[in-house]
């Protein structure tokens, strides 16, 4: 089965609305590839600006965080209906920075995946191991456990629409990329985990990205791997290089 490639930029906490408009304008003529799904996952404050700026292009807008309730007394949070109305179609869930800095655990991440599907947002579910787990050699067990918890109670039909991002924490923002073989090993293991939890048709349909210092120089080699269907790009999504990754 051929899966459609998906390249998503994770802008993290970068770009004011004015800067966001400039970046979208810079990328506009370069990020033109109908064979690839392209997503800009932007800070919430930038969503309206970016949604307006990408109108008429094939770029979709993503968010980086939300809460599981639709509205109410949740100071500082933003809801799925708010994101939807503002033009968001993808949502990053379970990024290691949210897990490690903001204390999000797999119970909340699982609730967020459920809420995203129920709200018509496409989750980009992140998983990945620390350097200690990589060195200990137990990273596959760890990631398998993350996926199993995070997808508890999610139907096969939803998982077919899911994007999973494998992001080894030791490669995020460090300039140290997993080799294409290391990334392929884990992405393949993730697909096998989906086959065990669901069935082979679901495993064939789910799209798996690699993330962690992916850039214009290494993207083609990573994306050539059988189980790597795209990338979640941090640093390199903030510059013109992003277009080279989309076209890799
Ligand atoms: P990076 O970030 O490309 O800057 O390593 C990737 C991510 O955290 O999504």
Explain this structure.
With 248 residues, the protein is α/β, with parallel strands linked by helices. The chain has one domain: Aldolase class I (TIM Barrel, Alpha-Beta Barrel), CATH 3.20.20. The chain is 42% helix and 17% strand. An eight-stranded parallel barrel has the order 1-2-3-4-5-6-7-8, surrounded by four helices. The two termini are 20 Å apart.
**Strand/helix succession:** EHEHEHEHHEHHHEHHEHEH
| CATH structural class | Alpha Beta
Major beta-sheet overview: 8 strands, parallel, barrel
User: How many distinct helices?
Assistant: 12
- Total domains: 1
What would CATH call the homologous superfamily? Aldolase class I
């Amino acid at each position: 089965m051929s899966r459609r490639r998906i390249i998503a930029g994770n802008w993290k906490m970068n770009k004011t609305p004015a800067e966001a408009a400039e970046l979208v304008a810079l990328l506009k003529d370069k990020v033109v590839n109908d064979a690839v799904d392209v997503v800009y996952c932007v800070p919430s404050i930038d969503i309206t600006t970016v949604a307006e700026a990408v109108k008429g292009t094939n770029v979709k807008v993503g968010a980086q965080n939300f809460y599981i309730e639709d509205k109410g007394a949740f100071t500082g949070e933003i809801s799925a209906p708010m994101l939807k109305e503002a033009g968001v179609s993808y949502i990053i869930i379970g990024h290691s920075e949210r897990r490690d800095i903001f204390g999000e655990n797999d119970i909340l991440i699982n609730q967020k995946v459920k809420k995203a599907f129920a709200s018509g947002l496409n989750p980009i579910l992140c998983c990945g191991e620390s350097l200690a787990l990589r060195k200990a050699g137990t990273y596959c067990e760890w990631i398998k456990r993350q996926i199993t918890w995070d997808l508890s109670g999610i139907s096969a039909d939803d998982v077919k629409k899911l994007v999973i991002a494998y992001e080894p924490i030791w490669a995020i923002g460090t300039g140290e990329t997993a080799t294409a073989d290391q990334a392929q090993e884990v992405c393949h293991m993730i697909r096998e985990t989906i086959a065990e939890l669901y069935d082979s048709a679901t495993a064939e349909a789910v799209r798996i990205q690699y993330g962690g210092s992916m850039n214009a120089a290494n993207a083609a080699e990573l994306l050539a791997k059988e189980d790597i269907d795209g990338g979640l790009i941090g640093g390199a999504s903030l510059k013109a290089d992003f277009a080279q990754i989309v076209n890799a």
